[in-house]
Q: What sequence folds into this?
C-alpha cells in the first residue's frame, strides 16, 4: 500500500492545499478523474463567463440604437465562439496537469477515489493511505426524476457549455443562476429560450425585490413560465417535448431542439462511498465540517461545494486556505464567512452580500432599508439605465445587514460594501463617509446608503 503525507481528492481548490504541502517537501497524492482545475475552470465560472462576455458585446451592439447609433450584428460564428472558449479552458487544464506530473512531490491518480475505511482509499486496483486526507470532490448537476427523462437527449450545464451547433430553440428546466446565465448567452446568440421555473419568480434565492425586477426584465426577453414544473418529457426525432404542470393541475406543452436541465447540484459523496467511513453527512449528502474545515474524522478535512456551505469558487479558496493551515499545523484557524458575496452574470447583472429582506423578516430581525435607482445618478443617466437599483438593509445601530444590487457592473459595485463589512467597521457610515468620484457609477451605492 502506497503511503503519502496527504491525499487530496479533487483538483479544483483542493490543488491549493496539494501545492502548499508539496512546496514544503511533503509527499502528495492528487486523485481526480476529470480535467484538472475543477468545476470552475472546466465546467463552470470560467467558460461560462467567457461565453457571457460575447453575449454582452452582442447586447451592447443591439442596444446602441437608443444612443442614436446605427450599428447591427451581421453574423455570429457560434461554433467558433464555443470552440475557442473550450480550447482555452482545455489548454489551461492541460498546463495544470503538466505542472503536477513534472513535480517530484506530486503523484496524480486519474481515476475515481473510493473510501475503504477512515484511513484508506481505493484508486483503480490499488489502495493508498495518508496521515491527512482532504476531500474537495465537489458536486455534479442534479437531474430530477421527470417521467421520460432517461429516454431523452437532454443536457446539463456541462454539455451546454460545449454545444457544437447552435440550436433554433431550447427549453430550460430551472430558474436559478445557471439557467439565467446560460439563457443570456443563448438568447444573444439567436436561440429562442423558454424557462420553466416551479417558483413564483426567477432567482428566488435573491432578495425578492431584486428577483421580481429581474423576472420582469427576463419575461420581456425569454419565454418565462413561473409556477410550472416539468412533469414529462419525450422525443420525436430531433424535437423534444416537455409537459409542465402547476399546483392547480393546469398543464402546458413546449417543444424545442434542445432540453437543458438546470435544477441544482448534488454532492459527490456517494461516488466516494463515504458510508465506509465515520464521516458525517447531512440529509442531502453534504459533508459536515466544523469551524476548522475538519470532518467528524479528525485527520480528514473537507472544503468546497461538497460541504454545501457557499457554492462559490471564492468560498472554496477561502476554505482551502483554512483547511491547509489546520491540517498542516493543527487546528488554529477558524473559517470566517463574514461578508461572503455572490454574483449572477446574467443581464442585468446581480451582486449581493449579507441577508435578504425575506431572511430578516423570517428571523424577526429589526431592520431599516433604503433603495436608490441607477437612473438618478449622472452615470446612470449616461447609460440610460432604467431598471437598476441598489438596496441596503441595516440595523438600527447602523450595522450593514445586507446589500443587493441589480444593474450594470453589479458584481463590481458590491465590492466597496464587502470591504466595509469585512475590513471596516461594518457600519453604514463606512460608505457614507467615503468620498466617491463624481459621476462614477458607484455613486449609486453611496446614495443608497445615504438614504438611511
A:
Amino acid at each position: 500500500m502506497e503511503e503519502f503525507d496527504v491525499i487530496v481528492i479533487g483538483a479544483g481548490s483542493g490543488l491549493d492545499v496539494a501545492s502548499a504541502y508539496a512546496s514544503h517537501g511533503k509527499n502528495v497524492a492528487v486523485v481526480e478523474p476529470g480535467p484538472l482545475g475543477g468545476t470552475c475552470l472546466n465546467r463552470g465560472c470560467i467558460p461560462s463567463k467567457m461565453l457571457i462576455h460575447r453575449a454582452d458585446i452582442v447586447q451592447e451592439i443591439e442596444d446602441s440604437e437608443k444612443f442614436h447609433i446605427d450599428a447591427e450584428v451581421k453574423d455570429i460564428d457560434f461554433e467558433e465562439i464555443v470552440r475557442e472558449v473550450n480550447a482555452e479552458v482545455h489548454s489551461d487544464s492541460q498546463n495544470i496537469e503538466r505542472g503536477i506530473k513534472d513535480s517530484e512531490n506530486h503523484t496524480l491518480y486519474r481515476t475515481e477515489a473510493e473510501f475503504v475505511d477512515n484511513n484508506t482509499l481505493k484508486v483503480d486496483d490499488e489502495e493508498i493511505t495518508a496521515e491527512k486526507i482532504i476531500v474537495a470532490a465537489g458536486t455534479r448537476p442534479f437531474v430530477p426524476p421527470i417521467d421520460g427523462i432517461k429516454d431523452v437527449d437532454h443536457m446539463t450545464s456541462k454539455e451546454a457549455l460545449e454545444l457544437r451547433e447552435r440550436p433554433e430553440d431550447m427549453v430550460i428546466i430551472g430558474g436559478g443562476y445557471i439557467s439565467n446565465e446560460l439563457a443570456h448567452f443563448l438568447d444573444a446568440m439567436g436561440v429562442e429560450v423558454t424557462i420553466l421555473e416551479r417558483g413564483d419568480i426567477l432567482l428566488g434565492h435573491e432578495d425578492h425585490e431584486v428577483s421580481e425586477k429581474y423576472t420582469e426584465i427576463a419575461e420581456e426577453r425569454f419565454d418565462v413560465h413561473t409556477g410550472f414544473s416539468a412533469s414529462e418529457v419525450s422525443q420525436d426525432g430531433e424535437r423534444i417535448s416537455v409537459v409542465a404542470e402547476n399546483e392547480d393541475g393546469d398543464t402546458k406543452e413546449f417543444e424545442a431542439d434542445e432540453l437543458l436541465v438546470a435544477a441544482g447540484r448534488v454532492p459527490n459523496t456517494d461516488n466516494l462511498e463515504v458510508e465506509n467511513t465515520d464521516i458525517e453527512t447531512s440529509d442531502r449528502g453534504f459533508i459536515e465540517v466544523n469551524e476548522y474545515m475538519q470532518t467528524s474524522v479528525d485527520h480528514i478535512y473537507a472544503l468546497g461545494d461538497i460541504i454545501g456551505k457557499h457554492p462559490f469558487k471564492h468560498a472554496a479558496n477561502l476554505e482551502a486556505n483554512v483547511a491547509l493551515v489546520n491540517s498542516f499545523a493543527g487546528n488554529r484557524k477558524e473559517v470566517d464567512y463574514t461578508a461572503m458575496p455572490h454574483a449572477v452574470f446574467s443581464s442585468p447583472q446581480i451582486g449581493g452580500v449579507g441577508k435578504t429582506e425575506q431572511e430578516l423578516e423570517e428571523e424577526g430581525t429589526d431592520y431599516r432599508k433604503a433603495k436608490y435607482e441607477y437612473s438618478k445618478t449622472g452615470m446612470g443617466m449616461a447609460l440610460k439605465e432604467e431598471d437598476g437599483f441598489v438596496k441596503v438593509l441595516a440595523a438600527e445601530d447602523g450595522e450593514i445587514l445586507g446589500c443587493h444590487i441589480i444593474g450594470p457592473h453589479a458584481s463590481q459595485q458590491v465590492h466597496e460594501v464587502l470591504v466595509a463589512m469585512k475590513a471596516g467597521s461594518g457600519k453604514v457610515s463606512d460608505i457614507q463617509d467615503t468620498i466617491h468620484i463624481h459621476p462614477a457609477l458607484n455613486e449609486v451605492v453611496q446614495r443608497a446608503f445615504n438614504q438611511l
